[in-house]
Amino acid sequence: QVRLVESGGGLVQPGGSLRLSCVASGSVWNIAEMEWYRQAPGKQREFVALVTKGGSSNYAASVKGRFTISRDNAKSTVDLQMNNLQPEDTAVYYCKATQRVLDDEQDHWGQGTQVTVSA
After folding, report:
1. How far apart are CA 107 and CA 16, in angstroms?
2. 92 — pLDDT class (breaks 50, 70, 90)
3. pLDDT attached to residue 27
């Protein structure tokens, strides 16, 4: 099992920055991808960014160029640096980790951290 704990959310003005962090514990040795998702009120949860164990990353079009995902395998952490935040970035942000052993795959989610962008 993998436990994920996010931190770093809060209230920020438009144009501001926040850095989210997620720490994984438990069976971290077989975590493949680590991702960030978000869910705004009344909307479905959506993909934000992904980073592989090897450090390759991918972003949603809406955040590309503003958000940066990074991972420290030694510390079992994944961060999301968010710059130039806009009101439409307001959401609960969730960390996701995918365990993969041979053909078996399990997803684990954190409890989420609120990000509010407002003047």
Report:
1. 31
2. very high
3. 86
